[in-house]
Amino acid sequence: MQNDAREFVDLYLPQKYSASNRIIGAKDHASVQVNLAEVNKVRTTAICRAIHRMGKSDDSILQLAKAHGILSKNF
Question: Which Gene3D superfamilies match (predicted)?
Answer without folding.
Answer: 3.30.1230.20
